[in-house]
Design a protein that fits this description.
Elements (H helix, E strand, L loop, with lengths): L17 E6 L2 H6 L4 H19 L2 E6 L3 H14 L30 H4 L15 E5 L6 H10 L5 E5 L41
Parallel strand pairs: 1-2, 3-4
Length: 200
């Protein structure tokens, strides 16, 4: 507001304004053996402090902005922050993973892309969106088997080849070919056997 970023034609009413806190880097946090219970408590304390200082409501949700993830990764490397050790080593660009699961652009098991830490379930007003790219839409039974294995279920968005990919194209983090992503109903694709309901 002091920099003139708020439109002068719109009156700013603090108590009617809400702020959003976005969290990302769940993969790096998990890789660094982070404690999700402690993270949930720290997030709650942060929200309480912000609500007290800003005197407005705070909404918490995952951040899917890949540009913000890259900026924070560069900041962590430039300033020597302790969580830089969980980032990719050079020559890969230092970037956190958007959201809480693994990077949707990189082939990985469906469960890791749909990761939603259970301790954060009650602290988020907006559930994370898991982008599950697959060669074709899975059957209803396969989807139910996947949901049964997840502790907390995010909002799932299946991305078969005929759907356009979300977000702007990033040359440093392009989407892998769709054939590289696991297909939950094809045993030859190297998918975890736990995804098959009839094998339980």
């Amino acid at each position: 507001m002091t920099e003139g970023g708020w439109p002068a034609a719109l009156p700013f009413q603090r108590k009617r304004c809400g702020w959003r806190v976005g969290i990302l880097g769940g993969t790096e946090f998990q890789g660094a053996s982070g404690n999700w219970e402690a993270a949930a408590e720290g997030l709650k304390d942060l929200v309480d402090i912000l609500e007290t200082r800003l005197k407005s409501s705070i909404q918490v949700g995952p951040c899917q902005d890949s540009e913000m993830a890259q900026l924070l990764g560069l900041q962590a490397m430039r300033e020597g922050l302790p969580w830089r050790n969980s980032l990719a080593l050079p020559p890969a660009p230092p970037s956190f993973t958007p959201g809480l699961g693994t990077d949707a652009r990189i082939p990985s098991p469906l469960e890791s892309r749909a990761a939603f830490p259970l301790p954060l379930k009650d602290g988020l007003q907006h559930p994370p969106i898991a982008l599950l790219r697959v060669p074709a839409v899975p059957s209803e039974g396969t989807a139910e088997a996947l949901l049964a294995r997840l502790g907390a279920v995010p909002a799932l968005r299946w991305l078969p080849p005929e759907l356009s990919l979300p977000g702007p194209f990033d040359p440093e983090h392009p989407w892998a070919p769709v054939g590289d992503f696991p297909f939950p109903s094809d045993p030859s694709a190297g998918v975890q056997l736990g995804l098959f309901g009839e094998w339980e």
